[in-house]
Write a structure and sequence with these properties.
CATH topology: Alpha-Beta Plaits
Strand content: 15-25%
Strand order of the largest sheet: 1-2
Amino acid sequence: MIKIAAYRVIQNKILKLVNLVHDELVLECPTYYLEEGTAFVRECMINAVHMSIALEVDISSGVRYGEAKT
């Protein structure tokens, strides 16, 4: 499921996939695209696979990876 979401996210061309760790995508994008990019990533992750249960997606951002962790 995460690989399908990652594939859809990188098709965007503005978002750059830096790392994929277990159930986490680490992405880079310009700051002006952060709000729109966040919404796009959330949509890709939720709709990667159609399931009968709702999936939760937590997204955080920061200048460095450590700042983005919640």
